[in-house]
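REQUEST ID: PR-0412
SUBMITTED BY: lab tech R.K.
PRIORITY: routine
TASK: structure prediction, single protein chain
INPUT:
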Amino acid sequence: KTESEEDNPALIVFRLKEWLDKQEHLPHITNDKLLYHIAAASKGNCMRACKRLDIYYTVRTLIPEFFSHRDPSDEETKRSAKCLAASFLPNITTPDGCRIFLISFLDQDPNAFDVLSYLRRIYMLLDMYCINGDLNPRQGIYFLIDAKGASIGHVMKISPSVLRKAVFCTQDVYPIKIKGVIFINVNEFIKMTITTLVMPLFRLKLRKRFHIYGSQFEKLYR
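STATUS: complete
OUTPUT:
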């Protein structure tokens, strides 16, 4: 890799297009914003960019339950939006220039909890930001998860298989730089669930970026 490749994602985009022409299993991609995003997120490494692009699309056939029924106007998506808030906070960045993606219950009833519809909508949003060029690929992201109201009833509706696949998609598929995963309003049961079932699925580098708070999280405002 040369210095010009590191500083010139457009060069990697050109090479990605050449590589894509030879990949019959991938769709014909004309969105330069997505290719630029993946190139920049790969820090000018063409081989890494090719691998990122490959898994970004092949995962949609490997894990169809996360990437089907993606109509934002259908009833399932509308119900999801009424039960779970999930979005980048507008016009807000951390002191180190990172974006914040907030996830929070709007309906705390476990009977309304549909983890697959929530994951589908979250990944739709991440796709939208990557494809539209609305997210700086070198800008870090903090996931801020408000666990107020979370209970054993919610946890019991998340299968180990779905959890493993969600971790894989979040840390290995999407071309995003996760700077931290912050949980607030966490009770003792949910804290135990996060530390014993969720965190071990992440690589050590990301596990060190988990921060868990109860109802006292004034430290976040510093």
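NOTES: The chain has eleven helices and five strands.
REVIEWED BY: pending
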